[in-house]
Specification:
The chain has helices at 2-12, 47-55, 78-96, and strands at 15-20, 25-30, 35-39, 62-63, 67-69, 75-77. The protein is an alpha+beta fold.
Length: 97
């Protein structure tokens, strides 16, 4: 039950800050005060992200409150971020069982 309430609060939250860490990891700070570490290693081979890496813009994200954005129109919404985190958590849990 706690996961549902946490999910709802994250969905209603806004992104207040995003910063690039090493390689493919980003720190996302929400207005709730929660910080999310998002790894995009599984997405960096997609053409849009590969182009960002090649241009050097991959490590220069910004946000509009609802999404992480990059130059050229590439973005990931907070809802997509939450889905990625939940699916990653489910994969990790399944590997531990």
């Amino acid at each position: 039950m706690e996961m549902v309430s946490e999910q709802t609060s994250m969905e209603q939250s806004r992104i207040v800050r995003v910063e690039a860490f090493d390689g493919d990891t980003f720190g996302i700070t929400l207005e709730s005060g929660h910080t999310v570490l998002l790894e995009l290693e599984h997405r960096i081979k997609e053409p849009a992200f590969a182009a960002l890496i090649e241009s050097g813009d991959f490590c220069k994200p910004y946000n509009d409150g609802k999404a992480i954005c990059w130059p050229g129109g590439v973005s990931i919404t907070l809802e997509e971020i939450l889905e990625m985190l939940l699916s990653h958590g489910n994969r990790a849990q399944n590997q531990n069982n």
